[in-house]
Amino acid sequence: MLRTKTGPGWIVFSLALAAAIFVSSHAADPLAPLAPLKPADSGTCTMPPESPQPLAAPRPSAPPAVLTAPQPPSAAASIPLIGDTAPAFKAETTEGPITFPDDYKGKWVILFSHPGDFTPVCTTEFMTFATMAPEFEAINCKLLGLSVDSNTSHIAWLRTIQERARYKGMEKVEVTFPVIADRKMEVAKAYGMIQPSASDTKTVRAVFFIDPQAKVRAMLYYPLSNGRNFQEIKRLLIAMQTTDAHSCATPADWQPGDDVIVPAPSNCQKARERVDNPPKDTTVCDWFLTFKKLPKDQLKLPPGK
């Protein structure tokens, strides 16, 4: 009868022997797959090896960034540029229907917008402009107001101004220039007077200077909260008329009667001649900076100015 030995030493020896048998059985092909395990004597089964999982589909790469061109401004923000022909229009006003620019041939026009009737800042502006209207008329300029209110609202507001408003010694002021009722905002949008970042229901305080050839010569824009400087509006108009009549430019803070600027020479020879032989009644600082006298009596000014 075979006697079985037990103890830690024999256990280690048995494990080493099993490992040697395993290695020798796979020595011919070490990469050969293992045979599936058979059910154990206990009646329980071990799980067969898992089948290989399919590889996940590659994740699509993000599309490359695409730079888009800036979008053109909306119609509400369209603004005629200096030198452009002023947009033509027909409109109802407090003085009857008008057709622009046909009704204003040979005239300068100051077209200006205000945010709304029965508002305090606009009331002071209309009183000021109406008081100055004869001065603009004397220098061949017509005034033309606009807001998106109705004609009925305009008329009621202008009557209230005349009957109740007082400002800087002005009272009982009658507004006689036309005020456009632009309920559909057609004129306001054509001139960029509706600026959505400020308001999409009211016009900003825009001023367009339009010459007798219906060309836009200058523009001023003020926010809703701040009234305009009407003396500056008149000064700029006189300055542009002076430029047209006398082929000159006007320096900073120019006022009628101040020296004006002579245009710079167009070539080197004329530049040298100007410096070597300054023209009469000029002050030549250098070839590009020359001033000349232009007295008030040579300008077209309102009476008494």
Structural account:
The chain has 305 residues and is of the alpha+beta class. It folds into two domains: 75-230, Glutaredoxin; 247-305, no CATH class. It is 27% helix and 16% strand. It contains six helices and twelve strands. Strand 11 (282-286) and strand 12 form a beta hairpin. The longest helix has 19 residues, at 120-138. It is elongated, with a radius of gyration of 44 Å.
CATH architecture term of the largest domain? 3-Layer(aba) Sandwich
Q: Using the CA coordinates, give the radius of gyration.
A: 44 Å
Strand content is: 15-25%
Q: Distance N terminus to C terminus? A: 146 Å
CATH class of the largest domain: Alpha Beta
Mean pLDDT: 84
Element pattern in H and E = HEEEHEHEEEHEEHEHEE
Shape type: elongated
The total count of helices amounts to 6
Helix content: 25-40%
Biggest pleated sheet: 5 strands, mixed
User: How would you classify the helix and strand content by structural class?
Assistant: alpha+beta
